[in-house]
Amino acid sequence: MSLPKLPGEYLLLQHEIDAILSTGAVYATAETGGNRQAVQLVDMDGDGEDEAIAFFRMPGGDFLVCAYQRTADRYEEIGRAEGFGSSIHAVHYPCVSADGHLALALSWGLEDASTYGMTVFDITDEGLESVLDIQYSSLLVEDMNGDSVDELCFAVRDAVTGGHSLHLYNYSGGGYRLMGETPLSVEVRSVSLMQFGVTRGGHSAVFVDSAATGGGYITDVVSLSGGVAVNETIDMVAGSGAVTWRLVSVSSTDIDGDGIIDVPVAAEPQSGSETQQSDARYKLHWFDFAQGEEPQAVATTYHSVAEEWYLMWPDIWGEAVTASRRSFSGVSRTTFSVSADRMPAEKNSRSLLTICVYTGDNRVSYAVADGVKIIRQTASSIYGYILPENAPIGYALTDEQVAEIFKLMERDWTAGG
Asked: Most exposed: 53, 91, 224, 271, by fewest CB within 10 Å?
């Protein structure tokens, strides 16, 4: 792998790097995350001047990380460390002091694809000094208590039992120390997303979305108060997190825009195959959690995950409306209708709204032929809708209401730990 030469200002650094490359080493880059360059310029000590962190793979397959500091007339190596993973999975720079001092956190890929290793280095007078070494399955780097210092939060899988737990580390006394830990739900098969937010009660919390054993997804809400981590969604006797189960792959998010992360739960309980095969599986109720209180319902949605759109369920629909979907070449139609038991059989159409999604090379001509109203377009899809002229009174929507409740799902392109 070859990279462009550094700009003139950094020619002195290039000389140092070339000396390592001449041994047969090659540049190495991280697989995920926002820090993927082989040479990264970062102000590690908070003095306003960038240090250089360079990553190499040595001829024997091991990794070498070198840190350089600019002096008056050259770049001087101030530390180096070796790594022995199968890859550099990700690179993080957690802040470890209020004055902006950063540590270097390297995540290593391991033979077990579901587990990573992490080594955290502090730059000291002795060079790159290891201050934490841990194996984990998912990671969150965040200032969780507002002191300008980043905590490290790990989801850790027990190699013997297969169970998962959440471990929280804070920086103290020159290193990262275990601050607290709590079990995650027994249903956790693999952690898909960890994010930091606040609960309805104002407590800081980590929201852990996971794929569940037996299918579906669950969320653990771990609140943090006074250095104590409490799992708000787990049954402390059975260890179950079934209260947050849903079949579809939808993660926790601030669904109603109030600054609190909400948790999606299946509108119909986890029961039998009939429920899982019906379109009711796409309907979700969203809840806020608060320490020691009953969860509070804040919204309902219908999520079409495969087509990357969702609908904020109108209050006037309540439990009276159902959804059905038909798909054929390049076109998908999801129709929302008043359920048959809410309207006499002799009434006209029960249809309220049809969302149409067009894909493929002929999507424009299909949309024009159907005469739909276009509501969104992406590089690969056209989203349109149809409002029937004689929709049932009391449930009908306007064009303005459709524009307000229709949303596209967002992707996290930088996820990685």
From this structure: 271
> Which residue type, as a one-letter code, is found at position 42?
V
Instruction: Spell out the domains of the chain, with CATH numbers in brackets.
Output: 1-134 (2.40.128), 137-305 (no CATH), 321-408 (no CATH)
169 strand-pairing partners? 152, 178
Q: Which two tokens stand for residue 12?
A: 């002195």
Q: In what order do the strands lie in the sheet with 204-212?
A: 188-198, 204-212, 217-225, 228-231
Kindly report the number of other CB atoms within 10 A of residue 333's CB atom: 19
CA angle 241, 245, 251 (to 5 degrees): 105
Torsion sign (Cα): 343, 345, 347, 353: positive
| CA distance to 303, 306, 327, per residue, from 359 (Å) | 18, 12, 11
pLDDT tens-digit series, residues 344-356:
665 568 899 999 9
In the block, tokens 């001509």 appear at 365
**Which tens digit of pLDDT belongs to each residue from 131-174?**
999 999 999 999 998 899 999 999 999 989 999 999 999 999 89
**DSSP helix/strand/coil, 218:** strand
Using only C-alpha atoms, the chain has a radius of gyration, in whole angstroms, of 26
Rounded Cα distance, 114 and 97, in Å? 31
Q: Identity (one letter) of the amino acid at 401?
A: Q
Asked if 83 and 90 touch (Cβ cutoff 8 Å), the reply is no
- 20-63 confidence digits (pLDDT tens): 999 999 999 999 999 999 999 999 999 999 999 999 999 999 99
